[in-house]
Design brief:
- Helix content is 16%, strand content 31%.
- It is an alpha+beta fold.
- The chain has two domains: 33 residues; 128 residues, 3-layer Sandwich (Rieske Iron-sulfur Protein).
- Strands 1, 3, 4, 11 and 12 form a five-stranded antiparallel beta sheet that branches. It has a four-stranded antiparallel beta sheet with strand order 7-8-9-10, with no helix packed on it.
- The radius of gyration is 28 Å and the shape is elongated.
- It binds FE2/S2 (inorganic) cluster.
- FE2/S2 (inorganic) cluster (FES) binds next to loops.
Length: 178
């Protein structure tokens, strides 16, 4: 007949081993957690990327060649658009709070409103058919390319698609949550 197994004994060494392991784990977590939060911060409360619906003052199908219509990011809730590309002061992923839909050479483009020099808002010059920056005199062709510096790079595109009606577009953006 087999003998009953002897009850397991917990020695002082076992206890010290577990205690040291727990202490080491807690120390590592305490040291690493702030680094992880630094590199991958949690998005601010309520902030969420997604499509932003924009109502245009002029429907896209009524834009004439060389026309551009300005639009702003909706404020309720507070939103912004996400730049798709860029250079100079602009970069992919940066935020814009306005833009232009422009019809040029039969093609419709949507640009962020930010000048690539230092980020001022450009305005449409209807007579010259250019986007002009009031801050330091940069000018852009309607296709977004630089006509005159100091802007070092074209206007940034916004990623968009047609909305449910010709006077609506849907632009990649973010709800800011404040
Ligand atoms: S910010 Fe536009 S030219 Fe300087």
């Amino acid at each position: 007949m087999a003998e009953a197994a002897a009850p397991r004994r917990y020695t002082r060494r076992t206890f010290l081993g577990w205690w040291l392991a727990s202490l080491l784990t807690a120390t590592v977590i305490t040291a690493v957690a702030p680094i992880l939060v630094y590199f991958w911060p949690a998005p601010p409360k309520g902030q969420k990327k997604g499509p932003v619906n924009v109502a245009l003052q002029t429907p896209i199908d009524q834009l004439q060649e060389g026309d551009a219509v300005k639009f702003d990011a909706p404020r309720s809730p507070n939103t912004a658009f996400i730049m798709a590309d860029g250079g100079g002061d602009n970069a992919p992923g940066e935020l814009a709070f306005g833009g232009f839909v422009v019809k040029n050479s039969g093609k419709v483009d949507v640009f962020a409103i930010n000048c690539s020099h230092l980020g001022c808002s450009v305005a449409l010059n209807k007579d010259a058919k250019t986007f002009d920056c009031p801050c330091h005199g940069s000018r852009f062709h309607l296709d977004g390319t630089v006509l005159q510096g100091p802007a070092p790079a074209p206007l940034s595109h916004l990623t968009w698609k047609q909305g449910a009606t010709p006077d609506q577009i849907v632009v990649d953006g973010i709800v800011l949550g404040f």
